[in-house]
Design brief:
Shape of chain A: globular
Number of strands of chain A: 10
Family (chains A, B): Belongs to the serine/threonine dehydratase family.
Protein name (chains A, B): Serine racemase
Low-confidence stretches of chain A: 324-328
CATH class of the largest domain in chain A: Alpha Beta
Distance between the termini of chain A: 47 Å
GO molecular function, one term (chains A, B): L-serine ammonia-lyase activity
Strand order of the largest sheet of chain A: 1-2-10-7-8-9
Strand content of chain A: 5-15%
Catalytic activity (chains A, B): L-serine = pyruvate + NH4(+); L-serine = D-serine; D-serine = pyruvate + NH4(+)
InterPro entries (chains A, B): Ser/Thr_deHydtase_PyrdxlP-BS, TrpB-like_PALP, TrpB-like_PALP_sf
Oligomer: homodimer
Structural class of chain A: alpha/beta
Chain lengths: 328, 328
């Protein structure tokens, strides 16, 4: 196994001065609705507004440690990972290129260039992103920082769990919104090392169908890889990574919580009303599963951790304002 | 002086198990905009969604200590203080009546009755509220808990500052949204006792005109008392209290930061975008003053504390959705 609790511990030592130790918050109202004790880890308050800063810092700082003459780093992402790598590179005084598709909103571009990164536009297709990223890497010698299929990134995300188990030492389970699986595998590895009796559950958008692959311990997804049609743009990747999937098979529960867009929106709204936390739809998925989905979980599980993974949301486009919903 | 640091310390011992020690959060982006270091005390995450839980707990618990046969407590407020007194009475197992004007939204009524309090409707005038409250007090023997003109309430609010100075030990100044002055006087008393070199500034809605009264150390407001026309319903009271005003004259800066409704809205939005914190307009006033108003403050003041006093806001009525604004 290329990521163990040792790598997570080393990651924490490496990055802790550059990230926030995010608070854990609670709500008696949500506890009553869930019929359990819920503990929310507020990674929406993390540097750059999402947990991605942890993995990016660990991977980028390791690149600098291992290659003192490094030409820098490159990645492709218009979202939280792009900002996070730009932030990490700035912290490490490394050059950074971020490939984004044409048409990316200016506010996202500004967030990336605000950290001093070089923005490179590509065509809005997965292939063009990859090709452009590879071209920059080969021309400049910059190291590619993959958003999830990278053990150093996973180890960095695992520090969410090492902090969380320190803050709440007796969790029975943790609910993690999943996309490529970098955060979930990091949390699963750290949890196995620090509190093996604590179960890790993934929360997915409808259409990911992760449970079937976990149950069979085999990649059952259709190819070529595709995006899921969901409002949660941070978790649109259908397939988990080649490196993350085996870790998930070993360490997380095969039961997966599946959440629709309307349910995520309800989760976002519960978070804003009850926790006073601005979160993006992926976090809303975990909140919904924790508050409304507990009938699917063993009643012996009393203390449930919930990852509020990010808070980067367009306040002009809050979904209940723009949809006809009845979440009162 | 009827409130000193001793009463604040005693209040903290009395209430700390029933309130949250709220986190302090920071944002490099807001620091850069302000040109100072800003530390945000997240009382929007407090029990009942606002700092009012502190003062209410202290006053209600003291009522129970001093009158073991107490008939309970009564107050008039449809807002944060009403919820807070209901919560405190539930914690103390005391009876509670809350007087609210006819037409109060159901969601606010539900929040009060959810804590087991008895809801009493009155006419929507200040006089009717007072009269109804006094009538209940005389008929039932319940003790009136005034929202700000009560030394026990002030001492409870002062615990915001004792926590804050413990969390950030070298603040140069604190910005406090002001209405009746209970929170501001409590914070001022605690700050004078714990860190006398730290200055306390009030942030007011336009129309309060507090600075004139502070400069003259005399109540310059027109009578009868009136409400200010502002979207910040938590800070509509124009006049500070008879008990709070002398403390304010002694302990806070006579310079007052004045904020318009549009500026509060910008502050709310900055809080949600940059701090990921849902706050109400009164908190938005303090955020605006901290981020945009620092040209009015001595440049030697580097570390500024900002009180996010509450987060109870109607998510269907976020002001930038319902107004033609250009806060991007």
């Amino acid at each position: 196994m290329a990521v163990t609790i040792s790598e997570v511990r080393a990651a924490y030592i490496r990055i802790h001065k550059w990230i926030h130790k995010t608070p854990v918050i609670t709500s008696q109202t949500l506890d009553a609705m869930a019929g359990r004790e819920l503990y929310f880890k507020t990674e929406n308050l993390q540097k750059t507004g999402a947990f991605k800063a942890r993995g990016a810092c660990n991977a980028v700082f390791m690149e600098k440690e291992q290659n003192p003459q490094s030409a820098g780093v490159v990645t492709h992402s218009s979202g939280n990972h792009g900002q996070a790598v730009a932030y990490a590179a700035k912290c490490a005084s490394l050059k950074c290129s971020v490939v984004v598709p044409k048409g990316t909103p200016k506010v996202k571009c500004d967030a990336i260039t605000g950290y001093g990164a070089n923005l490179v536009f590509c065509e809005p297709s997965p292939q063009s992103r990859k090709d452009t990223c590879a071209k920059i890497a080969s021309e400049t010698g910059q190291a590619i920082i993959h958003p999830f299929d990278n053990y150093n990134v996973m180890a960095g995300q695992g520090t969410i769990a090492s902090e969380f188990h320190d803050q709440v030492p007796d969790l029975d389970a943790i609910l993690v919104p999943i996309s490529g699986g970098g955060m979930t595998s990091g949390i699963a590895v750290a949890t196995r090392g620090l509190r093996p009796q604590c179960k890790v559950y993934a929360v997915e958008p409808l259409g990911k169908d992760l449970q079937r692959s976990l149950e069979q311990k085999c990649r059952m997804w259709p190819n070529p890889p595709q995006f899921i049609d969901t409002i949660a743009d941070a978790i649109r990747t259908q397939q988990c990574g080649d490196l993350t999937f085996p870790i998930l098979c070993d360490y997380i529960e095969s039961k997966v919580f599946t959440v629709t867009d309307d349910q995520m929106i309800e989760g976002m709204r519960l978070s804003m009303e009850r926790l006073k936390m601005v979160v993006e739809a992926a976090s809303g998925a975990a909140v919904y599963a924790a508050v409304r989905g507990m009938s699917e979980m063993d009643p012996s599980i009393r203390k449930v951790g919930v990852i509020l993974c990010g808070g980067n949301v367009d306040l002009d486009m809050l979904p209940w304002v723009n949809r006809s919903t009845s979440y009162q």
